[in-house]
Amino acid sequence: MEEPLRIIGDGVGQPDWAPPVELTEKDLVAMYRSLVILRTFDERAVSLQRQGRLGTYALYWGEEATHAGPLHACNDSDWLFPTYRQNSIGVLRGVKAATILAWWRGYGGAHGFYQVREHRVAPICVPIATHLPHAVGLSWAAKKRGDGICALTWLGDGATSEGDFHEAMNFASVYKTPTVLFCVNNQWAISTHVSRQTATPTLVEKCVAYAMPGLRVDGFDVLACWKATKEALDRARAGDGPTFIEAVCYRIGAHGTADDPRLYRDEAESERYRALEPLGRYRAYLQRLGALDDDQASDIHDEAKALIAAAVAEMEALDFPGVEILFDYVYASGRPDPLTEGLDELRSIERRPEVKPLGPQPGASPGDADPLPEGA
Ligand SMILES: Cc1ncc(C[n+]2csc(CCOP(=O)(O)OP(=O)(O)O)c2C)c(N)n1
Ligand SMILES: [Mg+2]
Predict the structure, then answer these.
(1) Which residue minimizes the CA distance to atom 23 of ligand 1?
(2) What would be the CATH architecture of the domain defined by 25-316?
(3) Could you report the per-residue pLDDT of 350-371, keeping only the tens digit for each?
């Protein structure tokens, strides 16, 4: 099996390769900033959930390169189709971090939903693979209009077992739609290991059946993720159709805050992968290149902390949206009688207390319940 494309070495055995020539030093630092914002958001969101200040949360610690690399390869006019795992990607496109946090708190409406057209970020998709035909459809329409817009969509290893995945791959390839299907092979679909998901040694070979070009990259390497996506987008914009990218990494954390991976896998393996996490690895690479100094890095971290702290404060100042949101967005207009009766019943029993912490959550460690640090 061929080694995945890698640019950033590990500083020990693996060599460094030069950054792609199209990227300026400013671009390289901008990518670092994106990784830091994503990481800061993720760590803060886990801590909020542990304190009962978010309902649930799908963490992505260690997978940030698979979010930021592809995003930086896109034009602002391209559309993004994230899953719950890339939940905060919109923040890098101008969506308020408070809105994403409010979404995880269970708020809908103006509090928890962003304007998808304004940011060109499709709604965060929770059903596995259902967004893939949407991404293909949007890019097919763009191709017909000839406006040069592409769609970038993420999916997990588990999503490759869904019918929607195969339909999207087939349609995209037959109609040569400008779509990039970026598959984050983090080796787990909740408790199912990728070896139980498919009998093929790799996921990238699935594209052979659809006559679609495919690439395999190191998913801990933000530059490899950028380069593969950039090449795919260039091909798509030239009219040469879709590409499937398999980014090989590992889900270092739990599936979500309600999951305890110790029950189904050997956590010693996760610990080994932790050493490959993309943020520290990229920072060390930039420092070897002389493209980032400690002061610059610490300014970026301070900026990210302030951004997320402000978002938490903004989210917590929002009014509780009320039970009506359970019924919003179900019908384009009107509401059938049984739903109106359900809403009336809920209103009659609704309490509107301030949102109280839910108490310790599964898998929480004692330190998680500590009062928040200053600025939280
Ligand atoms: C259609 C559908 N079936 C089942 C689920 C329950 N579910 C949520 S996440 C998940 C695993 C997905 O794994 P993968 O595609 O590898 O993505 P990852 O969570 O690793 O990012 C499943 C089965 C769902 N959300 N949607
Ligand atoms: Mg997975």
Answers:
(1) 189
(2) 3-Layer(aba) Sandwich (3.40)
(3) 665 555 555 555 544 433 444 4
